[in-house]
Design a protein that fits this description.
152 residues, mainly alpha, elongated
Length: 152
């Protein structure tokens, strides 16, 4: 399941990474607009906010932080927000003010820069697919980067 606003933020990120800042900003604004419409913000308030974005950011000032933060807002309570945070290496440059929670299990994540990397498999997976199961010990599984986040 994916919303139109999420599609526009994904497109904005792709265009940004390609170097198309104007296209990235256009898709970014469309994503913001779509999300505000989804939550029934008035057209007048949407237009005011979009004009404010033009003043404060514009196509030359767009950054991954702008895109990811607005995507986070639009996808609130969607697990995909964690995927983006992990993909951005939990960067406080991308997510201003992001800090590790105070109640982190320090036995598993002893270092200040340790963040969860993967979720544990359900235990029934160990019964049904044991031949292909990686180590599901939380001390290993939660800290092992996924395949796309490792050096070859």
């Amino acid at each position: 399941m994916i919303t139109y606003s999420e599609v526009k933020f994904i497109s904005a990120e792709a265009k940004f990474r390609k170097g198309d800042l104007t296209g990235a900003y256009t898709d970014f604004k469309e994503g913001v607009k779509a999300d505000l419409e989804k939550v029934t913000v008035s057209t007048e308030e949407i237009n005011e906010y979009l004009a404010k974005l033009d003043e404060e950011i514009g196509s030359t000032g767009i950054s991954l932080s702008h895109i990811f933060v607005q995507k986070y807002i639009a996808n609130l309570l969607n697990p995909e927000t964690w995927v983006d945070m992990r993909r951005a290496d939990y960067s406080s440059d991308i997510y201003p003010g992001l800090e590790r929670p105070e109640n982190v299990n320090l036995d598993i994540f002893p270092n200040d820069d340790d963040w969860i990397q993967a979720m544990m498999y359900e235990y029934n997976e160990e019964d049904r697919n044991y031949k292909n199961m990686p180590d599901n010990n939380p001390y290993v599984r939660l800290t092992t980067p996924v395949w796309w986040n490792t050096e070859e």
